[in-house]
Design a protein that fits this description.
Blueprint: H1 4-32, H2 34-57, H3 61-67, H4 71-90, H5 92-118, H6 130-147
Helix pairs in contact: 1-2, 1-4, 1-5, 2-4, 5-6
């Protein structure tokens, strides 16, 4: 069986989870501040992923292997994750969940287009085409329309 349908469902659920998470963290952040809510979420996430890793792998040896990789790749990756979480805590009360994710997804797709076109981080190069650019421009226009209230 192909892993494509299972992967697509996992990504779909992650998308739903991201919206639910940002909304719940925004609610907490209104009372405690966005950084405090982000800190709490990161702590809960660390404990949760540590327990899950131990259950699945029966050790944290893989974490040690990952930490021995070049810090120029894993340190920014971890900090970017915290930054994304902080922004997803801060933004929804100000521009709404739809506005937050419209801008986020547009930015992700623009970044992906650039990364694919140059083969960044060992990705297969996928040339920029008129149709890909048109799709991205339409998404950007959609994000702008969503931000208007």
């Amino acid at each position: 069986m192909s892993l494509v349908p299972l992967t697509a469902v996992a990504v779909l659920l992650a998308g739903i989870g991201a919206v639910l998470q940002s909304t719940m963290l925004a609610m907490i952040g209104r009372r405690s501040g966005a950084l405090a809510a982000t800190t709490l979420a990161a702590i809960v996430g660390l404990v949760g992923i540590t327990i899950f890793t131990l259950l699945v792998n029966r050790s944290l040896a893989g974490v040690a292997v990952a930490a021995r990789q070049s810090p120029w790749i894993w340190l920014p990756a971890g900090l970017l994750g915290v930054g994304v979480l902080a922004v997803l805590t801060f933004a929804p009360p100000r521009i709404g969940s739809l506005g937050t994710f419209a801008v986020l997804i547009t930015a992700q797709l623009l970044t992906s287009l650039v990364m694919d076109s140059v083969g960044l981080f060992g990705l297969d190069r996928v040339p920029i085409s008129v149709t890909r650019l048109a799709g991205l421009l339409l998404l950007g226009a959609g994000a702008i329309l969503v931000l208007r209230r």
